[in-house]
Amino acid sequence: MAEQNMEAKLKSWLKQEKIQLWNPPYTDEDNVPGQQHLQDLAERYAPLLCLPLAEVVGALDAIRLQAVNRGKGNKTFRETNVATLELLLPRDSKKVETQRHKEYGLKYIKLILNGKTLSVDQRLDEQGVKNHSKMMVLKVSDTELKQQLSEEEEKTKNQNESIQRTQKGFQILSERDGSEDTSPFLEIADQRGNPLKIPHEEKKALILAMGLHEKGRSLMKKKQFDNALCHLLQADQQFSKCGSALLSSVDNFAVLQLDIVWCYRALEALSCLEDGKSRLQRAEDCFLQCYGEQQQRLLMIKGNTGREEVLFLRLYLLQSLLSYIEGNDAQARHQLSKVESLYSRLCLDSEKMSQLMVLGFTEREARLGLRACQGDLEEAAIHISNQRQEREELKQRERQKRSRRMEVISTLTELGFSRRDAARALQLADGDVDKAYAILLDSSQAAQATNNNTEGLLYLGFERDVSEAALRLTAGDVQSATQLLLDNQGVLSPELLSESPPSTSSSPSSEEPSTSSSTSTEDNELVNEVLEDISRHEEDYLDLTLEEESQLIQTMKTKNV
């Protein structure tokens, strides 16, 4: 970190003074360094850095060589379309030329770009690799190779299986509609518990994103940051399928960006610096849109902003860290001063915590309550009690709502409709039983009309499968379907069949299989497994002890930030 800080400062000073080390007098036409001129520069910069002269000369020559090589690489790329990659070698490697890998045992390497291992099965440009991309090289010695290969394969297998099981579990939950009284299902609601009306596909993506995020946070608590990062990046992909209007109205997306960069920090993934900066900027923009300029929107909804301040503390701390690594000490100090101010407000009195816990409140409730009330003990006790009451009232409303829903579904079932169809119709009708009945009736009549039309074509001598396909192609118009079959002598070509439009009807189907996947043992096991990672407390993501943050603050201060 100190080396990167020194290099960043030198580059900044060189840029300010418009000094180009790749040009004369610092580099001649044969790319030979001008040692005396480098020495003169080092004599100016060494006192400012408080470092030995020889070390600064070496750093300047490294920057010069880097610039010369970058220029050569750019020329080669323009002329031949062959890219140059900058590799960050393991610390014990003394050579820079990757073609001399045998000198330091790189017989097995992995290349890491922005926190992701490059795959040999994909083109580099498809994986985001560009000319002069910086990648981390992981070194594996011969003695460790076999063991590490086995461990990594097992680890990757477990990670992939975990992601797949999490995705499948939440996929099942996203498809459930509450038609089964004993089966859990998910409903997207706002901070007051009111259901949000979201398009079906967007709702599925949001549930998957939030589920993968919860799994990732669960792994972060266990300090399994590499595995957590895999789940968080998958969650990020799912969030990208949601509309911008939705993402700007909730803070989940911003919190995810913070969690990803926090994992980068824990894994010391310095190669992900640029990606980390972009994610922190997205998080800050999202908080601004979601909470308001002075957090007035948050204040209006929740009545206080104390609990969410831990998110800003982590945001400013990560911004300070990245600024320091880039060599921008002034910005790093500015952000760190904001962090320390927030930390002093959010670091709680242990005596007050104990007093609240003696009253029967949990440690989490005590911590969140004190932060919400700026450390006032009496107000915190009242606040926690009110929150408990509100939570219980919300649960009661949910129980009543579900009970009412089951009654309506049973009523529609008694009228001859399947339970599954009744639940779907009720969902489409936003709980209105009359509208649900109308949807079911229309669906039933449409199905009957389709059956009648099919029977008519069968009476004319056409086969059932081509009759049904012809009706699909002609949107149910029996005359057009008859003409189509006559024109093709009762046989539809594969080209015509491929044009058959997929069903886009949102009305319930009367041809559901008798055994639903949602009731299978395997599905229920998956659902129960993923539900274990969902916190029962809606503000779990705000319940930070700040121990890790405190350690990082102290580390930054020892670096004289």
Q: Give the strand content.
A: under 5%
Major β-sheet, in short? 4 strands, mixed
> Which structural class best describes the helix and strand composition?
mainly alpha
Extended strand count: 4
Query: Whole-number average pLDDT?
Result: 79
What gross morphology would you assign? flat
Measure the end-to-end span: 12 Å
Arrangement of strands in the largest sheet? 1-4-2-3
Low-confidence stretches: 93-107, 500-518
Quickly count the helices. 22
Cα-atom Rg, whole angstroms?
Answer: 31 Å
Amount of helix: 55-70%
Which sequence of SSEs, written as H and E, runs from N to C?
HHHEEEEHHHHHHHHHHHHHHHHHHH
Explained architecture:
This protein is mainly alpha-helical. Helix content is 63%, strand content 3%. It is built from 22 helices and four strands. It has helices at residues 2-16, 35-49, 53-80, 142-175, 200-221, 225-239, 244-247, 252-266, 273-291, 296-302, 309-326, 329-346, 350-358, 363-372, 377-414, 419-428, 433-459, 464-473, 478-487, 494-498, 521-531, 547-558; strands at residues 86-88, 108-113, 116-117, 134-140. The chain has a four-stranded mixed beta sheet. A hairpin with a 2-residue loop joins strand 2 and strand 3. Helix 5 (200-221) packs antiparallel against helix 6. The longest helix has 38 residues, at 377-414. The chain is flat and about 100 Å long. The relative contact order is 0.07. The model is unreliable at 93-107 and 500-518 (pLDDT under 50).
